[in-house]
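ARCHIVE CARD
CATEGORY: sequence design from structure
SOURCE FIELD: tokenized fold
FIELD CONTENT:
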């Protein structure tokens, strides 16, 4: 692809959009577009309203089902124990929360925390087993100001969601705040494949096939154009690790999955 260099944003631009509150930026990236910062959260909300009904099916289709394996690895890596309190930030339709609930049941609790009612609603039917039903709670709210007191959770996780938060750094700071000392953070997010040839194939798939399938199946080309764009703006694994350390997390590690298409970051408060 001739536009290869432009597709993956350079580090200056990636840095700029991390913490717009601190830098006083008036605009924020919504995919590759600049939008007034004050409008980004609403744009994200509309975006997920438009995809909520098809979200799970499209995830499975577009990732050939691999997202389930990534999510399993991510939750396994947190070594959760029965009785623990877990926060699933940007929890959406609840895949990570359900996996976590299976580990912390019957006495623990997982809170699915998401700004979008339609996404929460779309996942309600998945929490059906008797064993975990009583362990899952739902809260609608913004990851930039989590509505819980300090030091409440044993673990906080965010899967494929922090990318959408206008002030990502604030989102991580909030997760740090609500964790108990010694609590664990897990972030599962898309990243940049390592092998150049594989990356080119992935770019082609992302920018040509994904929007087409989005249009044909979910009725939204725009939503599935925004997805690959937002992935290419997200901090690379080392950059994200440095951000987490700056916030105060220790023992920050990460593991790349499927040649780096997705990455699991782990950290401890
Ligand atoms: C791509 S989905 C991920 C859902 C789920 N974690 C998963 O792995 O399938 C991103 C989710 O983040 C939510 N979201 C976006 N911005 C948010 C914000 N500022 N605060 C809370 N949730 C947000 C969206 O509503 C959406 O449900």
């Amino acid at each position: 692809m001739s536009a290869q260099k432009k597709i993956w944003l350079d580090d200056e631009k990636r840095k700029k959009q991390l913490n717009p509150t601190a830098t006083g930026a008036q605009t924020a990236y919504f995919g590759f577009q600049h939008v007034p910062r004050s409008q980004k959260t609403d744009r994200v909300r509309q975006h997920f309203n438009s995809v909520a009904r098809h979200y799970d099916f499209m995830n499975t289709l577009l990732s050939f089902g691999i997202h389930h394996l990534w999510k399993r690895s991510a939750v396994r890596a947190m070594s959760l124990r029965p009785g623990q309190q877990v926060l699933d930030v940007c929890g959406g339709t609840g895949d990570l929360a359900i996996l976590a609930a299976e580990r912390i049941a019957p006495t623990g609790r997982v809170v699915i925390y998401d700004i979008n009612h339609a996404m929460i609603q779309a996942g309600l039917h998945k929490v059906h087993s008797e064993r975990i039903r009583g362990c899952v709670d739902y809260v609608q709210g913004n990851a930039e100001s989590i509505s819980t007191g300090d030091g409440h959770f044993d673990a906080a996780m965010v899967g494929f969601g922090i990318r959408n938060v206008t002030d990502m750094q604030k989102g991580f700071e909030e997760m740090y705040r609500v964790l108990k000392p010694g609590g664990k953070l897990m972030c599962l997010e898309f990243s940049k494949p390592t092998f150049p040839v594989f990356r080119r194939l992935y770019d082609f798939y992302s920018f040509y096939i994904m929007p087409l399938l989005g249009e044909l199946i979910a009725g939204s080309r725009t939503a599935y154009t925004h997805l690959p764009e937002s992935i290419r703006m997200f901090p690379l694994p080392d950059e994200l690790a440095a951000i987490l350390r700056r916030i105060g997390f220790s023992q920050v590690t990460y593991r790349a999955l499927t040649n780096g298409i997705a990455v699991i970051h782990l950290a401890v408060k």
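CARD ANNOTATION: Strands lie at 27-30, 33-36, 85-89, 109-114, 136-140, 153-159, 179-190, 250-257, 262-268. Confidence is low (pLDDT under 50) at residues 1-5.
SHELF: design records, drawer C
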